[in-house]
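User: Let's play a game. I give you a shape written as tokens, and you guess the letters that built it. Ready? Here's round one.
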């Protein structure tokens, strides 16, 4: 655990002695439009109107910082603080193309299977908590404060293989329906498995499937339709588009 403390001290010394070199190293790992869908990135940046606490927006977390320093970086616990990501300077203009305001920002794609993110800022080479985030946690091992963001549990239910080895199939339809599933694992018999409505409009069923590629479809009456929660597609023996799942 002492390695993290030594890393903090070392980073401060490097920044103090050679800030230009350290800034160049950070810029190499910065998040840009190339790392995030261009439409999502532009939409998130347009929403930033002022410096505020970290904002969870869909699949992303947006961090902001005041423009009263030369550079702002951020390091995360899930990366063991090994990478310092550089913030980007944003400027807003009036109708005469005069600068109204400016601030730093960084867009992070939410890590999967993580309910909270702890981090530290690096402002002009000095490690610190986020002055715009009131939520902090104390790292007893290092004896330092960390800023923290709680990620709401908003992950949508999707068809996936569970840790138990079962495959959970998920379907969203109108409430009160009789939804069945059939596929290559039932010889396309859709009357073997009926899904359970676990909440209004959400149907699920857990099925044990062996390793390999499986094709399937959902059924409502005699109408078959693909799984909207699963982007993988394939073709049935009669050439119809169906859903596909790979079991490793």
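Assistant: Ready! My guess for every position:
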């Amino acid at each position: 655990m002492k390695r993290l403390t030594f890393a903090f001290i070392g980073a401060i010394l490097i920044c103090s002695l050679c800030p230009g070199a350290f800034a160049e190293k950070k810029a190499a790992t910065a998040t840009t439009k190339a790392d995030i869908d261009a439409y999502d990135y532009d939409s998130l940046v347009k929403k930033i109107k002022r410096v505020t606490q970290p904002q969870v927006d869909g699949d992303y977390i947006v961090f902001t910082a005041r423009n009263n320093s030369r550079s702002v970086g951020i390091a995360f616990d899930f990366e063991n603080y090994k990478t310092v990501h550089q913030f980007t300077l944003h400027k807003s203009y009036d109708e005469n193309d005069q600068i109204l305001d400016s601030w730093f920002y960084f867009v992070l794609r939410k890590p999967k299977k993580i309910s909270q993110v702890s981090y530290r800022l690096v402002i002009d080479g000095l490690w610190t908590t986020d002055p715009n985030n009131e939520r902090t946690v104390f790292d007893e091992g290092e004896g330092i404060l960390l800023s923290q963001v709680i990620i709401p549990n908003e992950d949508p239910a999707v068809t996936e293989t569970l840790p138990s080895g079962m495959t959970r199939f998920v379907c969203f339809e109108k409430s009160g329906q009789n939804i069945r599933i059939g596929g290559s694992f039932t010889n396309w018999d859709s009357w073997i498995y009926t899904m359970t409505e676990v909440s209004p409009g959400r149907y699920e069923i857990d099925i044990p499937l062996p390793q390999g590629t499986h094709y399937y479809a959902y059924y409502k009456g005699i109408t078959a339709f693909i799984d909207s929660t699963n982007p993988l597609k394939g073709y049935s023996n009669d050439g119809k588009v169906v859903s596909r799942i790979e079991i490793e």
